[in-house]
Amino acid sequence: MVANPVLVDSSYYIDQLRQKRPLIRELLRIASIRPLAVCGPIQCEVGRGIRVESLRNRLRTLWSSMLYVPTDNRIWANTEVLLWKLDRTGVIIPLTDGLIAECARRINAVVLTSDSHFQLIPGIVAVDRIV
Q1: Rounded to an integer, what distance in angstroms lies between the CA atom of residue 115 and that of residue 2?
Q2: Is 92 helix (H, G, I), strand (E, B) or coil?
Q3: What is the C-alpha to C-alpha distance for residues 46 and 57, in angstroms, rounded to an integer?
Q4: Coil, helix or strand for 8?
Q5: Three-state DSSP class for 110?
Q6: Which domains does the chain possess?
Q7: Which has the closest alpha carbon to 31: 13, 11, 5?
Q8: Could you tell me if 79 and 95 are in contact, meaning their C-beta atoms sit under 8 angstroms apart?
Q9: What's the rounded mean pLDDT across residues 1-27?
Q10: Distance (Å, rounded) from C-alpha 105 to C-alpha 76?
């Protein structure tokens, strides 16, 4: 039985880098036990904030080896429905988090994140570490 993929959220990348932890080594460790996934919103959020071009290039190389979840019209429509429903219950989350959640849902992925918004989204499994 193959384990569910891990969609690594932007907050995980950002926290690891801010804390000067070995991000790429940790991602490779996780990749040795679970498939890793990425989507455009995560690449853009993380990539725009990387100051050192060599690190950005290494991340881009790593992303190119991950399962890529495209943000097609269905993902956008599902995101709109999700956010509309959450809004009506008083749960307001950023658009990007809703979009990332729908990408995770598309491939039945666990979201590796430090962002508590993902805990508020029904049907999404969000964790802060993979052991």
Answers
A1: 26
A2: coil
A3: 12
A4: strand
A5: strand
A6: 6-127 (3.40.50.1010)
A7: 5
A8: yes
A9: 93
A10: 12
pTM of the model: 0.94
Per-residue pLDDT tens over the stretch 59-87 = 999 999 999 999 999 999 999 999 999 99
Closest CA to 130 of 1, 5, 2: 5
Cβ neighbours of residue 95 closer than 8 Å, sequence gap 6 or more: 79, 83
Distance of alpha carbon 34 from alpha carbon 66, whole angstroms: 11
Residue whose tokens read 């290039």: 57
Question: What single-letter DSSP state applies at residue 34?
Answer: S
Distances 111 to 4, 55, 66, 89, 103 between C-alpha atoms, Å: 10, 23, 14, 23, 10
The C-alpha atoms of residue 17 and residue 28 are separated, in whole angstroms, by: 15
- Which helix or strand (DSSP H or E) is residue 38 part of? strand 36-39
Distance of CA 107 to the CA centre of its chain: 12
Q: What are phi and psi of 121, to 5 degrees?
A: -100, 115
